[in-house]
Amino acid sequence: MIKKVTVDDLAELANLEKRTLLRRFKKATGLTPIEYCQNLRIHKAQDLLLTTNLSFDSISWQVGYKDSSSFNKIFVKTIGLTSTEYRKRFKS
To answer: What single string gives the DSSP state of each residue in 41-64?
Structure first.
């Protein structure tokens, strides 16, 4: 099983205080680590929606979400479309 990496884990790996890591990360990326990871997951989901015929449930699991409904809410909030709408609109 894959261990979930926390901000505390990242701070320890970087040998920084958690607060310092968060400040530097936000300054460098414009995002918090959680927002950054969510964006990576959304981009991977977009790719899978366009290049596979996998269901959204399978895709949400592949990008690290156990609950597809919560991932769907994040997807819609970020992209402005449901996964079905996104696939219909952009898949060739």
So the answer is: HHHHHHHHHHH----HHHHHHHTT
